[in-house]
């Protein structure tokens, strides 16, 4: 039974990404670094809920989101942020805001794929298949053998579907609604981010 007084991260994520989707779908989208980093920070607890299998992803994602949040105090929009890195010739350097943005985008993509798999696997209390499929689709091509092995071992320690719902303080039916809402809202956001990189010939597979 969900506790109505406790935190419900799925609802916050759903709301924040609906707002982001509206922004990127406007005729002249200007996505502020502050709005983007705040929405992304709401996703962070999800990685923590998945246990040791996604510990590396959680640490990496949280660190990158925090970097963007700090950058928001001196940079207005994602476009301005990228243009500054391009001008400084530091796009691919470790620690650059643009490089960190790409890593955060990958995290958003991972959660989208995971939610799609969870929704599709209705009736199965195990998260191993949804988590494995989404990891293979998004993160695996960018991880070395050591991390891939650690993730594979960690898959055995994933929470069950019901345990995840308890951690998120949601009932099954409501959780599916909010997961689908994130899937729908994150799609144009991720497409917008991809276009920021591709339109500047920066690529997205590095």
TrEMBL record:
Q: Which Pfam families match?
A: GLTP
Q: Which Gene3D superfamilies match?
A: Glycolipid transfer protein
Does Transport appear among the keywords?
yes
Q: Which SUPFAM superfamilies match?
A: Glycolipid transfer protein, GLTP (SSF110004)
Single GO molecular-function term? Answer: sphingolipid transfer activity
* All residue ranges annotated as the Glycolipid transfer protein domain in the record: 31-170
- This protein's UniProt keywords: Lipid transport, Transport
Q: Which InterPro entries match?
A: GLTP_sf, Glycolipid_transfer_prot_dom
Where in this chain does the entry annotate a coiled-coil region? none
Provide the leader sequence positions: none
For this record, the Gene Ontology CC terms, alphabetical, are: cytoplasm
Q: Which family does it belong to?
A: Belongs to the GLTP family.
* Protein name listed in UniProt: Glycolipid transfer protein domain-containing protein
Instruction: Tell me what organism the protein belongs to.
Output: Brassica campestris (Field mustard)
Organism ancestry: Eukaryota, Viridiplantae, Streptophyta, Embryophyta, Tracheophyta
